[in-house]
Design brief:
Number of strands: 12
Distance between the termini: 28 Å
CATH architecture of the largest domain: 3-Layer(aba) Sandwich
Bound molecules: flavin-adenine dinucleotide
CATH topology of the largest domain: Rossmann fold
Shape: globular
Largest sheet: 5 strands, mixed
Length: 202
């Protein structure tokens, strides 16, 4: 975990003089305009290669928000319902934020086959499909594929930060890159913006 939490970590990254953020920008729109020697790609690996072997499946979620006229809705911040209902998780945010209020807000998560790519589907045929894309990635010079979408693997935040730091160290050791300038793109997935993106390093 970052010493001062994720908010501070992202603030410091975004405040770095070498980092510029471009919102609502697919890296393919600007790849010919921004000179770079090396790219860190964090988008879906199958998309990078134009789905040439087919689409990697993901499980998605629909979030249903409810406000209840009671100070407390459930006994704990997060309850998982793996089997018995159409929803799989209910989160009551007050527990996490410490908010005091006469009402409370919860979100129900309903698994969906279509939608934003959230969770890789760990089936042998999907692993085989990913291995095909991975072989292409390994044969692609000057690009590292990093993160959950680019490696088709579910990571928690701490794991993905560790993977990013490990990749950085490996590249520095190989002296593949020097961090003269870094461009960090931010594009919305399904209307929500998420940090990171295709990072062009020169
Ligand atoms: C529903 C859900 C709940 C989660 N809850 C937790 C939790 O409680 N705790 C926890 O530790 N982790 C949680 N995670 C995991 C956490 O979200 C991930 O570990 C983390 O976001 C992975 O970071 P990433 O950089 O690999 O991918 P992402 O955060 O998905 O970042 C990828 C970035 O690449 C950008 N991108 C993609 N394609 C392009 C393109 N063509 N051009 C430019 N940019 C592009 C995207 O816009 C995005 O900003 C959760 C994940 C999900 C799906």
């Amino acid at each position: 975990m970052p010493l001062h939490g994720y908010t501070r970590m992202f603030e410091q990254m975004l405040n770095h003089p070498n980092i510029k953020v471009m919102l609502n920008t697919d890296y393919r729109e600007i790849i010919d305009m921004i000179p770079f020697r090396y790219m860190i790609y964090t988008g879906p690996i199958d998309e990078f290669f134009g789905y040439c072997y087919g689409k990697l499946p993901y499980r998605s979620l629909q979030f249903v928000h409810e406000t209840h006229d009671t100070p407390v809705y459930q006994d704990t911040p997060v309850i998982n319902y793996p089997n018995d209902y159409a929803y799989t998780r209910v989160t009551e945010f007050k527990y996490l934020t410490g908010q005091k209020h006469a009402k409370t807000s919860v979100v129900y998560e309903y698994p969906q086959a279509e939608g934003d790519p959230y969770y890789p589907v760990p089936r042998p045929e999907n692993a085989r499909l990913y291995e095909q894309y991975k072989a292409l990635a390994e044969a692609t010079p000057n690009v590292s594929f990093v993160g959950r979408l680019a490696t088709y693997k579910y990571y928690n935040m701490d794991q993905v930060v560790a993977q990013a730091l490990k990749t950085y160290r490996t590249l520095i050791e190989r002296q593949t890159l020097t961090v003269d300038s870094v461009t960090l793109l931010e594009v919305p997935i399904g209307g929500k913006t998420q940090l990171n993106g295709a990072t062009a390093l020169s």
